[in-house]
From TrEMBL, chain A:
Top-level taxon: Bacteria
Protein name per Swiss-Prot or TrEMBL: CU044_5270 family protein
Species this protein is from: Streptomyces hiroshimensis
Transmembrane segments: 81-100
Keywords for the protein's UniProt record, in alphabetical order: Membrane, Transmembrane, Transmembrane helix
UniProtKB/TrEMBL annotation, chain B:
The protein, known as: DNA-directed RNA polymerase sigma-70 factor
UniProt keyword list: DNA-directed RNA polymerase, Sigma factor, Transcription, Transcription regulation
Domain RNA polymerase sigma-70 region: 21-87
Similarity comment text for this entry: Belongs to the sigma-70 factor family. ECF subfamily.
PANTHER family membership: RNA POLYMERASE ECF-TYPE SIGMA FACTO, RNA POLYMERASE SIGMA FACTOR RFAY-RELATED
CDD domains: Sigma70_r4
Coiled-coil segments on the chain, per record: none
GO cellular component, one term: DNA-directed RNA polymerase complex
Domain RNA polymerase sigma factor 70 region 4 type: 119-169
InterPro entries: RNA_pol_sigma-70-like, RNA_pol_sigma-70_dom, RNA_pol_sigma70_r2, RNA_pol_sigma70_r4_t2, RNA_pol_sigma_r2, RNA_pol_sigma_r3/r4-like, WH-like_DNA-bd_sf
Length: 333, 186
């Protein structure tokens, strides 16, 4: 693992309160007596038992029971490689993608009225993403209705603004700016234009020759991040979608509705005890919705025991697109 | 200076080669125990080294570095410790996890360190594996790949779960967090 990779991995601890959490882990070093006692125990064991006679040490896996997978209809036709002309023009012009605008049979998002189409041209410094997110809480009275949030991503990092208007800045100058971590490797904001748009070359660039379970969930997560949170060009989005659907174990189902009634193509992946689903508009290759559910009965969630299919989290993408301005971070209270 | 892997390999025929490992890693392993079973850290440290020595022939470099393997041994020792403790049934039911989960002890540490109740509640709501991965990185300074080896999940799965845990923590602890909470989130 490279230093930069480590750095980006540890950026996972950049949520509010992470510093206090780290500090809470400070403990005094062991006494000299404690170390001496451990060393004496080892010496005693070495004197009494030859190597290899000891008790085997196996890591104990604490996994939830795995139930049979209900098959979803598999993908049968070639995925469209060419992106729709409308999508190319829209994104090239810097028009915000509003996933519900192309669908005649959709339920209009409650946030739609608040979102203005942006028509400025040229490379925008921000990529703005508006979501409605529902997360399971162990307290069922909490966050029942979901929460709206707007995120501005840029070269330097991200700013997040929930419905109450306060803005949290996650920019990290010390990490070299915004990085999408794909299978542990950083893809920087400016790398997006350099990524190959041939799916095989793109996959090779992102994960090398890695295959199988080791990479499946990580790659799925990375494709979700790039498709939902990055200003990737249309051709790159098409390639990302091909990489996503080519992940071992991924299942594709057409004409699936998201929670707001929009139609898209679902890409499912079973990940240990979870079932991950992305619903994607295959005209523009933008993510409409990300849904995590319990794969089996019995998954623990705090004091709750979930049943197969119970919702763990759902993020509905209400609008995405370039932005030329972002709000300033709110002062800390 | 010999690497951990070299020392462990050599210890198969030369037991004294194991001793530098004890000197190198006791502080980290003791810290792991002190955070999760503060009253028993010294005993658990000795037990972990005994088990590591006895099982040194089972180390597989393909599953991660020696450091991660040692934390895996420590994790098993800790789990056995907690399984052996009598816990009030109500507390076990409230935790909703295997009885080997050290969360109650960890939560007491967070409380003593004045970590905001909202942070503690959010951590408590994370699936046990996500929480464990997060704490191995935050407290034991392990990389996600090393933490994955300790917990026994693929590295990709660990990174994915950590990503989701971060999303949950940001959502819960971001600027929309209730202003009435006590404790410092910084």
């Amino acid at each position: 693992m490279t230093g930069q990779q480590d750095m980006n991995d540890r950026d996972l601890l950049d949520f509010p309160g992470a510093g206090r959490l780290r500090a809470a882990g400070k403990v005094a070093p062991p006494s000299a007596d404690a170390v001496a006692a451990a060393l004496a125990a080892v010496r005693s064991a070495a004197a009494g038992r030859p190597a290899g006679d000891g008790q085997a040490v196996e890591l104990e896996l604490e996994r939830e029971p795995v139930a049979a997978v209900v098959p979803v209809r598999t993908w049968r036709r070639r995925l469209p490689v060419l992106v729709s002309a409308a999508a190319v023009v829209a994104i090239a012009l810097g028009v915000a993608f509003q996933p519900w605008s192309d669908s005649g049979d959709v339920q209009r998002s409650p946030a739609a009225d608040r979102t203005a189409v942006q028509e400025q041209t040229g490379p925008a410094p921000y990529w703005k993403v508006q979501t409605l997110q529902w997360m399971r809480s162990s307290d069922e009275t909490q966050r029942r209705d979901g929460a709206y949030k707007t995120v501005w991503l840029s070269r330097s990092g991200t700013r997040e603004q929930p419905a109450n208007g306060l803005v949290q800045d996650y920019s990290r100058e010390d990490t070299g700016g915004m990085a999408y971590v794909i299978c542990g490797k950083p893809v920087m904001w400016d790398d997006l234009k350099k990524l190959p748009t041939d799916p095989a070359a793109l996959r090779a660039r992102l994960v090398g020759k890695a295959t199988g379970e080791e990479v499946a969930e990580d790659l799925y997560n990375g494709m979700e991040e790039l498709l939902s949170q990055s200003p990737a060009e249309p051709q790159l989005r098409a390639a990302l979608f091909k990489v996503l659907t080519g992940i071992p174990g991924a299942r594709v189902t057409e004409r699936v509705k998201d929670s707001t009634g929009r139609s898209g193509t679902a890409v499912d992946l079973d990940a240990d005890t979870w079932r991950l689903r992305l619903i994607i508009d295959t005209g523009t290759f933008h993510v409409l919705e990300s849904v995590d559910t319990a794969r089996n009965d019995g998954l623990s969630w705090g004091p709750q025991k979930l049943r197969a299919g119970d919702l763990i989290q759902r993020t509905t993408y209400l609008s995405v697109g370039p932005a030329w301005e972002a709000p300033r971070p709110s002062p800390r209270t | 200076m010999a690497t951990d892997e070299e020392l462990l390999a050599r210890s198969g025929t030369d037991a004294s080669a194991f001793e530098p490992l004890v000197e190198r890693h006791s502080r980290a392993l003791h810290g792991y125990f002190a955070r999760r079973a503060p009253g028993a850290a010294d005993d658990l440290l000795a037990e972990a080294w005994l088990r590591a020595y006895a099982g040194r022939g089972t180390y597989d470099a393909a599953r991660g570095p020696v450091r991660a393997w040692l934390f895996g041994v420590a994790r098993n020792v800790l789990a056995a410790h907690w399984r052996g403790q009598e816990r009030p049934a109500a507390a076990a039911a409230l935790a909703g996890e295997a009885s080997s989960d050290p969360w109650n002890a960890v939560d007491r540490r967070l409380d003593a360190a004045a970590v905001a109740p909202l942070m503690r509640r959010t951590l408590a709501e994370l699936p046990a594996v996500e929480r464990e991965l997060l704490l191995l990185i935050a407290w034991e300074q392990l990389s996600p790949t090393e933490a994955a080896a300790v917990v026994g999940v693929p590295a990709g799965t660990a990174r994915s779960r950590l990503h989701r845990a971060r999303t949950r923590l940001r959502a819960a602890l971001g600027p929309s967090a209730p202003l009435s909470l006590t404790g410092d989130l910084a």
